[in-house]
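Format notes (please read before filing issues)

Several people have asked whether sequences and structure tokens are stored in separate files. They are not. Every record keeps both together, in the order shown below: the sequence lines, then the token lines. Line labels are part of the format and must not be stripped during preprocessing.
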Amino acid sequence: MTDNTLLIGGCADGHVSLLGNQANRHGLVAGATGTGKTVTLKVLAEGFSRLGVPVFAADVKGDLSGIAAAGKPHPKIDERIESIGIDDYSAQGSPVVFWDLYQKQGHPIRTTVSEVGPLLLSRMLDLNDTQTGVIEVLFSVADAEGLLLLDLADLRAMLNHLIDHASEISRDYGLISKQSIAAIQRKLLQLERAGGKQFFGEPALKLDDLMRQDLSGRGIVNILAADELMMNPRLYSTALLWLLSELFEELPEVGDPEVPKLVFFFDEAHLLFNDAPKALVERIEQVVRLIRSKGVGVYFVTQSPSDLPDSVLGQLGNRVQHALRASTPKQRRAIKSAAESYVPKPGLDVVATIGSLGVGEALVSVLGPKGAPLPVEKTLISPPRCSFAPLAAAERKAMYKRSPVGGTYDTAVDRESAHERLTTRAEAAAKKAEEDAKREAANKAAEQAAKEKAQAEEKLRKAQEAARKKKARATRSKSRRQTPQEAMFKSAARTVGSTIARELMRGLLGSLKRR
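Then the structure lines:
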């Protein structure tokens, strides 16, 4: 490496180097398992670091950590150094910061639900179109009501909020079904068990902490422990895509700098596109196309170029192609397609060479000073200056303690957000409902008491009236009692009346008596 160039390896005509001012034009490292992709990644990463360029790489196999330690002498390394003609080789490690979503082997990487957004969140949860629509509504409602979505508790609270207010929200944003929300809640539980709970929260990652240099001016190599994370491919690929998207959104335009501001290695890149919806693929294509103007170089690492969509593959100007094996017609077509993407070199049969490359050999095509791809070269990859073996646990722990960002991310923070605000709302609503119920009960009790009092008063009034009438009757009865004289007079009167009646009766039945 001289000036702003990075030595990749040697070929029949000399050295094959990557120009620093073309490194942000992205790249590809491809090849079958065991052909040397990891070694190439190390060579590129430590080379960028020596240029002062920070690097981010996911360690999916657990063997990238050795980049922090100096390599050990070995006859094969000496032989390769001599074969390539490297004059300034010296074993050395690179400055490294370790990251781990699960906080087991490095500092946690966190972000918020709001920052991830509905499209990537739906990808992470593997939602269908209908469920994705519900997530879109959820974000819109949260924005409209000023609710922060920081972690999965906030997301779950918002889903419950949609259920509780489904009729009003459906009227304003379109129909949402409880069945769709229930399905999302089940997917959310799966994501939480896979590590999403650790990924979402605060403090969220600051991009500046990925773009550091050490005191000597070397770029920091940020290594994400991904061996456990790879157990959930969607979480892995979406988390890295989110990070790439954040770089695109936050970094300012810089055009084509002398060297990149950051180089991003996306290992196991095929996971990013497996079953990806068209909208997501289009967004990835857009990010890859435009992010180079932010000074970020993206290097996809995968087994075959055919793992990537043509729209993305066409934007990768710097390519390192390790051996591909062809045992099926599909694999033979993939080799032919890969060969056709290179600028041919006279006398080099690219199709035949791809299948016969040895370990540590590759077909390399880089961009020239004017940005045009140079003819492909069969290249012997330089040996890395770092250790081939992973870092020992004790060494890794020691580096973790010396990390410049140790105090920033290791302690989670839980501030007020949608979950707390919606809980407060629910508690206030429940308290108001309880007070209203008590007030209504008190009013009913008062009404009942008044009714019972009125009934009692009416009963008392009736009783008093009955007593008054009884007394009045008793008084009248007493006033009508007869004296002995009145009794004799009335008896005589009754007797006379009876006699007259009999006489009249006889007269009526017979003839009238003559006097």
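For reference, the curators noted about this record: Residues 113-195 form one domain. Confidence is low (pLDDT under 50) at residues 506-512.
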